[in-house]
Amino acid sequence: MGGECVLGASDSGQEASRDTWFLQGWKAGKFLIKGSVAGGAVYLVYDQELLGSSDKSQAALKKAGEVVPPAMYQFSHYVCQQTGLQIPQLPAPPKIHFPIRDSWNAGI
């Protein structure tokens, strides 16, 4: 009888230990994913020289405006093909012209 209680107690302890390891692993995984996304964003900003002159920043913004809408269309088309879902056609995004050079340090 005494041995059964000890075995039962150690089994629940091992199960709790497995749960703890799983939660710690899950938290570590989430941290690594978030850190990778943040690191990628920092690398992209550095690689595209977005913190340099306003001319380079404005060129990068224009390039992103040209590249992102077609990429979103391709991705939504791919999702529709893979899942069989019908996504309604959205209107074209508005053309935004925001000259960074004209507003740089305008509040000072």
Automatic annotation (TrEMBL):
It comes from Callithrix jacchus (White-tufted-ear marmoset). Keywords: Membrane, Mitochondrion, Mitochondrion inner membrane, Transmembrane, Transmembrane helix. Belongs to the MICOS complex subunit Mic13 family. This is MICOS complex subunit MIC13. It is found in: Mitochondrion inner membrane. It is a single-pass membrane protein. Its main location: mitochondrion. Component of the mitochondrial contact site and cristae organizing system (MICOS) complex. The gene is MICOS13.
